[in-house]
Automatic annotation (TrEMBL):
InterPro entries: Asp_de-COase-like_dom_sf, MoPterin_dinucl-bd_dom, Mopterin_OxRdtase, Mopterin_OxRdtase_4Fe-4S_dom, Mopterin_OxRdtase_prok_CS, Prok_Mopterin_Oxidored, YoaE_C. This is Molybdopterin oxidoreductase family protein. GO terms for molecular function: iron-sulfur cluster binding; metal ion binding; molybdopterin cofactor binding; oxidoreductase activity. Keywords: Iron, Iron-sulfur, Metal-binding, Molybdenum, Oxidoreductase. It comes from the Bacteria. CDD domains: MopB_3, MopB_CT_3. Its cofactor is Mo-bis(molybdopterin guanine dinucleotide). Residues 9-66 form the 4Fe-4S Mo/W bis-MGD-type domain. Belongs to the prokaryotic molybdopterin-containing oxidoreductase family.
Length: 682
């Protein structure tokens, strides 16, 4: 099958590998062995042939002249980007000889992998790599940069990442897009909502920034950053007071509603308005709309959980549909993530049994800078793949200082010489997902998909799977698990499925049918994975874990007295830092802007379009002011993880804190404070 695809020209089904909830079905057009066009697959049941602008221009990235073709060895200073090509043999030999020395002198925990989901293919993102580093005994990485605070919070309420089937939201009459820039980050949820609007549905957006999504809303509600749990509690107060709750539903499917009713007394609309900045009348209007429209659906974003209190915010919002009983109506409920429906057997895929020393230390990826500068005993080698920490990780000045250490041996495996790769001793060229075999599971819709290679590896590039097989062999590890083929890994993992929703899905099914849906018929609101099996409005487990057992508003951490809360989110035409080095996508995005309120701009004598400096105790960066009323006074918002910045070249993450959120060790990108000033030209 693979060989056939590779030999032939034509149009081939494929899947988008980017870390995006939509996980679109694609059609790849190939001529003379080269991909010439990528479009949406009209047969995909959810994404239906529509794809984003980013991926429509993917060929510009795949064949970007800057793409790596051979392994490289550093010749200049760390960070300055001078390298010379070497062979794979030399690269692997250099890595393995250094690692053997570190293991002998400092033990295996002196080596640390650093990865995320630059490629969402399960085998390449969390398969052979995990097996290899378990076998080696390397320090473990807590992969907490994206969504863990919110997922942990949601789990306390709902028992797992289980939400509404998005295909059913065609029936929805009220969409609340809560802290999600869906136009850019979940476009098909927005497409469904807009279609539903033609049948009378309303779209409400609650956000700190009236961005692409807020501008599409029937009603945009601006809110102060980090205060969303107060708004949700105020809504609960009114739902109970005005008898808009479904007591039968609560009795049957929840625990703790009596305690909750008592508890939300204190969150009266006046108090909530003072916390959130949302006018009292709007709190009433929103709640009445929510309490009387059915089916109602809340799309909970990732943005609002990138805060000190992000876990509790999501835990709290997740209680709302249980008060109204929205879960019982087709198209009602909420989605934070639907990951649990397609969850594979991670022990089968990753083989944690290969790790001998179960006490191996673990580092949180959000604190990479601190880890590289302060870990005791130190980390002497870092292996980065599927990630670009010099740009995406908080406190990036600390990260870069750590990466500059002379006694740190760094390997980066990527398609490009990223800002991170510039600090590497050895750089390895990676294949794109279109050159790989892998299985994909969306965290929004319910379809699993298989990618089969469409084109030959670019230059001498190799997949993550292949690199870890090579490293295992060179290290002398003879475990069979470390030589499994791409197909075997997928076969093994799916055959050992311990998840009732996908027990019918096998590798062969994925080969035959491009899109195989989870079977959620055994899903029951009475058999959730919470301790009680029900929706937990009151959670004893939370109390045990040191959190308030009832949903609660907790304020952001008080930082030093800088006047602005800084919210640096992703943008429309990049995918995190991916595409931020591709001319086409940079052109589409134009400039890195900082959105600020005109009152603040006036006070600071800043005009629209001027370059301004943002700074705090952690760092500084330069952005172009976008002055208007899209953000509240006291808040500044940037979009995009730009790699190439003006001035001192520091990126937005030079300013973000590496404090951890209230739950799951999550990131707090949006809870930092900054100062803003005009750049004087003298
Ligand atoms: N085009 C594009 N798509 C992407 C990505 C990308 O980089 N570009 N990244 C992908 C990834 S990895 C992820 S995790 C998702 C992220 O995508 P989303 O889930 O949409 O999350 P963000 O864009 O980080 O933030 C969403 C919104 O939250 C708002 N926000 C920030 N703080 C608060 C708050 O306290 N309260 C409220 N109500 N709103 C707040 C921001 O202004 C923003 O509009 O998107 C994925 N899709
Ligand atoms: N300020 C701020 N920072 C943020 C965020 C934010 O909203 N604001 N969002 C955070 C979030 S939610 C996330 S998920 C992280 C994402 O952060 P990262 O996971 O680091 O995502 P990317 O920046 O897209 O970098 C992925 C890299 O993987 C490479 N890659 C792609 N495919 C492969 C492959 O098959 N093999 C190998 N070896 N490499 C591959 C790409 O070329 C790219 O350089 O960023 C976080 N950082
Ligand atoms: S980035 Fe998202 S919207 Fe764009 S093609 Fe990929 S999955 Fe679809
Ligand atoms: Mo993410």
């Amino acid at each position: 099958m693979h060989a056939n695809l590779l030999k032939k020209d034509g149009i081939f089904p494929s899947v988008c590998s980017l870390d995006c909830p939509d996980q679109c079905g694609l059609l790849v057009h190939k001529e003379n062995g080269k991909i010439v066009k990528i479009e949406g697959d009209p047969d995909h049941p959810v994404t239906k042939g529509n794809i984003c602008n980013k991926v429509r221009h993917m060929t510009d990235r795949l064949y970007d002249p800057k793409r790596l073709t051979t392994p490289l060895k550093r010749t200049g200073k760390k960070g300055d980007g001078s390298f010379t090509p070497i062979t794979w043999d030399e690269a692997i030999e250099t890595i393995v000889s250094n690692w053997k020395r570190f293991i002998k002198e400092h033990g295996p925990e002196s080596i640390l992998p650093y990865s995320f989901y630059g490629n969402m293919g399960n085998s390449n993102a969390e398969g052979m790599d995990r097996r290899f580093f378990y076998r080696l005994g390397a320090s473990q990485l807590e992969r907490a940069i994206c969504s863990v605070a919110g997922s942990t919070g949601y789990k306390y309420t709902m028992g797992g990442s289980v939400g509404t089937d998005p295909e059913e939201t065609t029936e929805t009459k009220l969409f609340i897009m809560w802290g999600i820039n869906a136009v850019s980050t979940n476009m098909h949820q927005m497409t469904i909502a807009q279609k539903a609007r033609k049948n009378g549905a309303k779209i409400v957006v609650i956000d700190v920034h009236k961005n692409q999504t807020g501008r599409m809303a029937d009603w945009f509600i601006p809110i102060r950053p980090g205060t969303d749990s107060a708004l949700a509690l105020g809504m609960m107060h009114i739902l109970f007071a005005e008898k808009m709750v479904d007591r039968d539903f609560m009795k049957e499917f929840t625990v703790g509603y009596a305690e909750l009713e008592e508890h939300v007394q204190q969150y009266d609309p006046q108090t909530v308005s003072e916390i959130t900045g949302v006018p009292v009348d709007d709190i009433y209007a929103l709640t009445r709309m929510y309490g009387t429209t059915s089916p109602s659906f809340i799309r909970i974003g990732n943005g609002l959980q990138h805060h000190d209190n992000g876990g509790m915010i999501v835990r709290t919002i997740a209680c709302l549909p249980a008060l109204t009983g929205a879960w019982q109506v087709k198209g009602g409920g909420a989605i934070k993530s639907n990951k649990s429906f397609l969850r594979h057997n991670s022990a089968a895929l990753q083989r944690p049994d290969l790790l001998e020393n179960k006490q191996t230390r673990t580092f949180n990826m959000n604190q990479l800078g601190k880890v590289l500068l302060e870990a005791d005993p130190p980390v002497y080698s870092l292996f980065v793949y599927n990630a670009n920490p010099a740009v995406v990780t908080p406190e990036s000045n600390k990260v870069r200082k750590g990466l500059s250490r002379d006694d740190l041996f760094t390997v980066v495996h990527d398609l490009f010489l990223t800002e991170t790769a510039k600090y590497a001793d050895i750089v390895l060229p990676a294949t794109s997902a279109f050159e790989q075999t892998d299985f994909y599971a969306s965290y929004w819709h319910h379809y699993m998909q298989l990618q089969q290679p469409v084109v030959e590896p670019y230059g001498e590039s190799k997949s993550n799977m292949e690199v870890f097989r090579l490293l295992a062999a060179a290290m002398g590890y003879d475990d069979e698990a470390l030589q499994a083929s791409d197909e075997e890994l997928i076969q093994e993992t799916l055959a050992q499925s311990n998840n009732p929703f996908i027990k019918h899905i096998r590798y062969e099914d994925l080969v035959k049918n491009h899109y195989v849906k989870a079977d959620r018929s055994s899903f029951s609101l009475k058999k959730l994975d919470t301790p009680s099996g029900k929706i937990e409005l009151y959670s004893e487990l939370m109390a045990k874990d040191g959190h308030p057992p009832l949903p609660t508003y907790t304020p952001l951490v008080e930082e030093e007295e800088f006047p602005f809360l800084f919210v640096p989110g992703p943008n429309h035409n990049f995918l995190n830092s991916t595409f931020s080095n591709n001319e086409k996508h940079i052109k589409l995005e134009k400039t890195a802007k900082i959105h600020m309120n005109k009152k603040d701009a006036e006070t600071l004598n800043i005009e629209d379009g001027e370059l301004v400096r943002l700074w705090n105790a952690r760092g500084e960066c330069e952005l172009t002011a976008a002055v208007g009323d899209n953000v509240l006074p006291g808040v500044v918002v940037s979009q995009g993880l730009w790699a190439d910045m003006p001035g001192k070249k520091q990126t937005v993450n030079a300013l973000t804190p590496d404090r951890l959120a209230d739950m799951g060790g999550g990131a707090t990108f949006f809870s930092g404070r900054v100062n803003v000033e005009k750049i004087s030209l003298d």
